[in-house]
Amino acid sequence: MISCTICTIGDELLIGQVIDTNSSVIAKAINQIGISVALLHSVGDNREDIHAAIDHSLQKSDLLILTGGLGPTKDDITKNTLARYTGSTSFYRSSAQEAHIIAICAKRGNNLLEINRVQADVPDTCSVLENKLGTAPGMWFTYKEKVIISLPGVPFEMEGLLPQVLQRIKTHFGASLSPITHKTLSTIGIPESVLALKIADWENSLPKTLHLAYLPNPRTGVRLRLSDYESKNGEQLIENAFSQLRQILGNAIYSYDNETLEEVIAKLLLEKKYTLSTAESCTGGKIGSIFTSLEGASNYYHGGIIAYHNNIKEKILNVPRQLIDTYGAVSQQCVEAMAMGAQQLFHTDWVIATSGIAGPSGGTKEKPVGTLWIAIASPKTVYSKHFIFSNDRLRNIDRFSVTALNELRIHLLQISNNE
């Protein structure tokens, strides 16, 4: 299998001033054409470090893709370092890239300087990858049966060059490229450690060519990715494995296509032409914000109330004061009343209501920080459920919101299955 190292260059990456997005874009793209990534690393604007990175990368991989360090300023030293590394004896000017430089400067209203023209000069050991979106060209080196590709560090310029880079890689390596298949399913409501125990027998029985990765995230649950780097029928092997997993996990699986939880819920609501509203206390409008971030949310989401103060619960959602005084705002009785109040206020089929203690203060022995009550009002009844999470405020708000979304998804599926 052809392997690749991706190296990003720039002091700005090492001090955290700029986030490296190039590596992830490149890695995803070359995986799709059958090349595995052996190593990702970043180095600063230093000749010796860049030289060492090139040397190390070519020992590990058949292909090295560099981004950054190309440009008109003194810290853009990748080109000269590559020239020396590959034994270049002279530079030549790419007339095609020079034409792009002239056009770009004219379009921007900038004076064309010699420092701009010099960017079209490249080592005689490389061929030019024309950069139509910027002034610095990409470069392709074939060196001792290895390939080195140098691309601009500006993300949109790098991405503009990727199609021609990928096509040339496929032409160069040809039959040596192997099929690589990745498929991911998303689960919710089962902690990673519990999930690992639950599917241990399934994991142990996977075909040897399949590799499983756990990808936990408080916002998305635990994603399970299966990868096949060897088989021509990898896609079928993965589908068979996921089919077995469905029997084990059931509704804990919410997506096979990298859809978000809210996207899955939106589809369920739209299919049945249901409407939704929210009544939020401890989540502070986050659930409503999650839905309204989706295009077309107005087709099912009518609105929400952030009933953070008890007066709002009482005056807007018609939660009886006596109920709050007797059971407290964080209670089954209160959250169910909030859900029914929002259902009447917004005239929606479904409601998510939340009330809890996000922390870090406000907890009691009976209701510690992390306590959450969720109510789901359906067209026929109201469901409620109690949870206890940790004592980190922001993480709790995320978890409260995701848990509430999942409760809605589960009840929507139950209603659909019973119809």
Number of strands: 17
Overall pLDDT level: 94
Count of alpha and pi helical runs:
16
Shape: elongated
Low-confidence stretches: none
Largest sheet: 6 strands, mixed
Write structural notes for this entry.
Helix content is 42%, strand content 24%. The chain has helices at residues 11-14, 22-32, 47-60, 78-85, 95-108, 114-117, 155-173, 192-198, 200-204, 234-249, 261-272, 286-292, 310-315, 321-327, 332-346, 393-418; strands at 3-9, 36-43, 63-67, 91-93, 121-123, 126-129, 138-143, 146-151, 181-187, 210-217, 221-228, 253-255, 276-280, 301-306, 350-356, 371-377, 382-388. The protein folds into three domains: 3-176, Molybdenum Cofactor Biosythetic Enzyme, Chain A, CATH 3.40.980; 181-255, Alpha-Beta Plaits (2-Layer Sandwich), CATH 3.30.70.100; 262-418, Alpha-Beta Complex (Maf protein), CATH 3.90.950.20. A six-stranded mixed sheet has the order 2-1-3-8-7-6, sandwiched between helices. The model has no long low-confidence stretch (mean pLDDT 94). It is built from 16 helices and 17 strands. With 419 residues, it is of the alpha/beta class.
Q: In terms of topology, how is this protein built?
A:
Blueprint (H helix, E strand, L loop, with lengths): L2 E7 L1 H4 L7 H11 L3 E8 L3 H14 L2 E5 L10 H8 L5 E3 L1 H14 L5 H4 L3 E3 L2 E4 L8 E6 L2 E6 L3 H19 L7 E7 L4 H7 L1 H5 L5 E8 L3 E8 L5 H16 L3 E3 L5 H12 L3 E5 L5 H7 L8 E6 L3 H6 L5 H7 L4 H15 L3 E7 L14 E7 L4 E7 L4 H26 L1
Parallel strand pairs: 1-2, 1-3, 3-8, 13-14, 13-15
Antiparallel strand pairs: 4-5, 6-7, 7-8, 9-11, 9-12, 10-11, 15-16, 16-17
Helix pairs in contact: 2-7, 3-4, 11-16
